[in-house]
């Protein structure tokens, strides 16, 4: 007897691959897929957040180093350190620092600045080490958004660069030894020439530059081109951005020209490669004109 298969309305065997495919995914298969997607998200999201946090920490360290150099130059020009504001913040107008850089890029909290401006018996201590009669500290509150340990009570003049628990402050200091170096060794010039090359490796786009004390003038540097500015004063603060309105904090970078000069040639030559976007290239090179 010939066996007649029930082909159903579609004329296909219930055991055929086509009919199985049309049944869709089983609950088990969907569950497995959701678990895999959840695991991937659990890995990817923390990595993205961590990269962003590290970029902001690098930016804060860069800014603190530039501010430190500005403080040293201010002392060599004026014979004293600028006093801290009543709320222990930076005197930005005196130093020529853009107002937006009074706050760290990590949490947007103002940098803590404390200075001992009078040569006397008292001194600032960092990690229980005296910095000398005239000294200063600049501190970022770090990713946790608060000043930790001894940094939480600046009035006593005692600070720390490392601690326990969730301590994550970033501290830079100026000690008395920094201020007693000879000007010749430090390499301060009366005026500087800036040579700035735009070699952005992320996008072939223009770079915009301006001098903080003359924000009305913006220089446009097409990709692959070079900008040369002469007659810059040692206090000149250079601001760079990929946006002509300098609106995005993550895409704005600034540096003090005298702090970038290496040697005594009074010419600072730098190459701008990319923004802080996780690439292997630095944001901007050091002085190549030595």
Automatic annotation (TrEMBL):
Pfam families referenced in this protein's UniProt entry, alphabetically: N_methyl
Keyword Membrane assigned: yes
Q: Does the keyword DNA-binding apply?
A: no
Organismal lineage: Bacteria, Bacteria division WOR-3
Please name the Gene3D superfamilies in this protein's record: Glycoprotein, Type 4 Pilin
Query: Which interval of the chain is the signal sequence?
Result: none
Tell me the protein's name. Answer: Type II secretion system protein
Report the source organism.
Answer: candidate division WOR-3 bacterium
Matches recorded under InterPro entries:
N_methyl_site, Pilin-like
Q: TM spans, by residue?
A: 25-49
Sorted keywords for this record are:
Membrane, Transmembrane, Transmembrane helix
């Amino acid at each position: 007897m010939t066996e007649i298969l029930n082909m159903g309305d579609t004329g296909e065997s219930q055991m055929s691959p086509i009919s199985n495919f049309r049944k869709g995914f089983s609950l088990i298969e969907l569950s497995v897929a959701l678990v895999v997607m959840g695991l991937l998200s659990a890995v990817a999201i923390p990595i993205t957040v961590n990269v962003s946090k590290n970029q902001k920490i690098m930016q804060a360290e860069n800014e603190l180093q530039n501010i430190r150099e500005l403080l040293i130059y201010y002392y060599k020009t004026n014979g004293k350190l600028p006093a801290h504001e009543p709320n222990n913040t930076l005197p930005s107008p005196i130093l020529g620092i853009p107002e937006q850089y009074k706050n760290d890029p990590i949490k947007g909290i103002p940098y803590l600045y404390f200075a001992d401006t009078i040569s006397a018996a008292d001194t600032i201590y960092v990690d229980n080490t005296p910095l000398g009669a005239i000294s200063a500290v600049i501190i970022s509150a770090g990713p946790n958004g608060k000043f930790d340990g001894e940094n939480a009570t600046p009035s006593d003049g005692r600070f720390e660069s490392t601690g326990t628990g969730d301590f994550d402050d970033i501290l830079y200091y100026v000690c008395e030894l920094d201020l007693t170096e000879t000007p010749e060794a430090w390499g301060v010039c009366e005026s500087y020439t800036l040579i700035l090359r735009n070699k952005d490796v992320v996008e072939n786009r223009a770079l915009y530059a301006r001098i903080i004390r003359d924000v009305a003038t913006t220089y446009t540097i097409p990709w692959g081109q070079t900008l040369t500015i002469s007659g810059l004063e040692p206090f000149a603060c250079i601001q760079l951005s990929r946006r002509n309105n300098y609106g995005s904090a993550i895409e704005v970078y600034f540096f003090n020209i005298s702090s970038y000069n290496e040697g005594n040639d009074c010419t600072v030559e730098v190459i701008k490669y990319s923004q802080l976007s996780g690439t292997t290239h630095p944001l901007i090179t050091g002085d190549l004109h030595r």
